Amino acid sequence: MEKAINRQKILLDHLRPPTSSDHNYEAFLSATNCAAGDSASYHRTSAFGDDVVIVAAYRSPLCKAKRGAFKDTYPDDLLAPVLKALIEKTNVNPAEVGDIVVGTVLAPGSQRARECRMAAFYAGFPETVPLRTVNRQCSSGLQAVADVAAAIKAGFYDIGIGAGLESMTTDRMDWGGSVNPKVQDFAQAQDCLLPMGVTSENVAHRFGVTREEQDQAAVESHRKAAAATATGKFRDEIVPVRTKLVDPKTGDEKPITVSVDDGIRPNATISDLAKLKPVFKKNGTTTAGNSSQLTDGAGAVLLMKRSVAVLKGLPILGVFRTFAAVGVDPAVMGIGPAVAIPAAVKAAGLELDDIDLFEINEAFASQFVYCRKKLELDPAKINVNGGAMAIGHPLGATGARCVATLLHEMKRRGKDCRFGVVSMCIGTGMGAAAVFERGDAVDELCNARTVNANGLLSKDAK
């Protein structure tokens, strides 16, 4: 009996956290980090299976609003196929999903929430699986992914979906209703009402981004997106959508299957773009050619606790590391990524040079060029398959789309690509960014002692 009691005391002592009186705790932590190498902060979560991983990420094709292949498609019919793909391609029981969070921007909140709930039923989810929407403007899709990751980390559930949806054909971008006259007394509040194109002009003017730089960035975006399409890169992330086209004259419906983005212009040239007139300011530099396209589309990301993914035998596409949202001057809202990216990277315990791949949303060429130059990023690491100026920017879906594009490209690159970042600017003056790690890139735990097997309750019991 005395021997058993002594064993219990030893076990309890192992569980008791060290105090300043009997251990130098700070020195212990420092020594552990040094022994573990360059990713010590990740070791516990990966070794114990309680970090958050992505096992699947898909998107619909992105199509031009009002005149593209989805102009006659209901918003819920855009979201349902990507939700269904997550379940079908992983064989996860849909009843196990703890929550579905959908980023969306333009539609009235309660209406879009109902449409998303309807889409979940179309996709085969049972009534027991809840759903909600989230709106942080252009980062709504990324915010949805971050919200799900945080909920899994908090222990609310083990499996969740972060998604995004936008039909810019269906929903208008203009302000509805009256504006509070109090806004006249607050300069920054007034700037929250600026058209996004005007903020693009402000960025170009304030930071000296030339028209030539903007047009060059647009051409590069189209060139890279066209190459990615031609080589089949997007096939890994795109879910074909069955829909219809309506003849405007006869009203006849024609069934179609959409499997490619329809806004990419492979033959775009600097000389062609130079002919376009500024849209938002006389003698300005922001044109329809060097801005993101109005787009319809959806995306979805399946996240879960690592231990659950391992138990199910699912390949890990990526690991969610950190997320940051940071406010900036609304008049130059496009600079958001230049502030948010360093914040997210720092939170991950990394430096900018550690990041191998970036997906930075190209809301406007002016802000994209500024952020690239401000952070001194290698152009070869950014938007390697093109960006929103070519593919399109379905506001609420962009974050989820970028996560899918980033993680599939990181998988293709293998060992040469360990860390990636998704980032975008946000209307009213913010930026958001998230850091991801390639799924198979976690370091081996190198600071743990090997304990020989024995039949005792504690290795210290004799």
From TrEMBL:
<dbReference type="InterPro" id="IPR002155">
    <property type="entry name" value="Thiolase"/>
</dbReference>
<comment type="pathway">
    <text>Lipid metabolism; fatty acid metabolism.</text>
</comment>
<dbReference type="InterPro" id="IPR016039">
    <property type="entry name" value="Thiolase-like"/>
</dbReference>
<dbReference type="Pfam" id="PF02803">
    <property type="entry name" value="Thiolase_C"/>
</dbReference>
<keyword id="KW-0808">Transferase</keyword>
<dbReference type="InterPro" id="IPR020613">
    <property type="entry name" value="Thiolase_CS"/>
</dbReference>
<keyword id="KW-0576">Peroxisome</keyword>
<dbReference type="Pfam" id="PF00108">
    <property type="entry name" value="Thiolase_N"/>
</dbReference>
<keyword id="KW-0276">Fatty acid metabolism</keyword>
<dbReference type="InterPro" id="IPR020617">
    <property type="entry name" value="Thiolase_C"/>
</dbReference>
<dbReference type="InterPro" id="IPR020610">
    <property type="entry name" value="Thiolase_AS"/>
</dbReference>
<feature type="domain" description="Thiolase C-terminal">
    <location>
        <begin position="316"/>
        <end position="438"/>
    </location>
</feature>
<dbReference type="GO" id="GO:0010124">
    <property type="term" value="P:phenylacetate catabolic process"/>
</dbReference>
<feature type="domain" description="Thiolase N-terminal">
    <location>
        <begin position="52"/>
        <end position="307"/>
    </location>
</feature>
<protein>
    <recommendedName>
        <fullName>acetyl-CoA C-acyltransferase</fullName>
        <ecNumber>2.3.1.16</ecNumber>
    </recommendedName>
</protein>
<keyword id="KW-0443">Lipid metabolism</keyword>
<dbReference type="InterPro" id="IPR050215">
    <property type="entry name" value="Thiolase-like_sf_Thiolase"/>
</dbReference>
<keyword id="KW-0012">Acyltransferase</keyword>
<dbReference type="GO" id="GO:0003988">
    <property type="term" value="F:acetyl-CoA C-acyltransferase activity"/>
</dbReference>
<comment type="similarity">
    <text>Belongs to the thiolase-like superfamily. Thiolase family.</text>
</comment>
<dbReference type="GO" id="GO:0005777">
    <property type="term" value="C:peroxisome"/>
</dbReference>
<dbReference type="InterPro" id="IPR020616">
    <property type="entry name" value="Thiolase_N"/>
</dbReference>
<keyword id="KW-0809">Transit peptide</keyword>
<dbReference type="InterPro" id="IPR020615">
    <property type="entry name" value="Thiolase_acyl_enz_int_AS"/>
</dbReference>
<dbReference type="GO" id="GO:0006635">
    <property type="term" value="P:fatty acid beta-oxidation"/>
</dbReference>
